[in-house]
Amino acid sequence: LAILVGMAKTGVPGLGIFVVPVMALLFPVRLSVGALLPLLIAADVIATLFYRRHAQWPVLVRMLPWTYAGMAAASLVLWRLGDQGLGPLLGLLVLVMILMELIRRRYGWHHLPHAPWFTHATGLAVGFTTTLGNVAGPVMNIYLVARGFTKEHFMGTMAWFFLIVNLSKVPVYGSLGLITADTLRFDALMLPFVLIGGLAGRWLLPRIPQKLFETLVLVLAALAALRLLVQ
Question: What is the pTM of this model?
Answer without folding.
Answer: 0.82
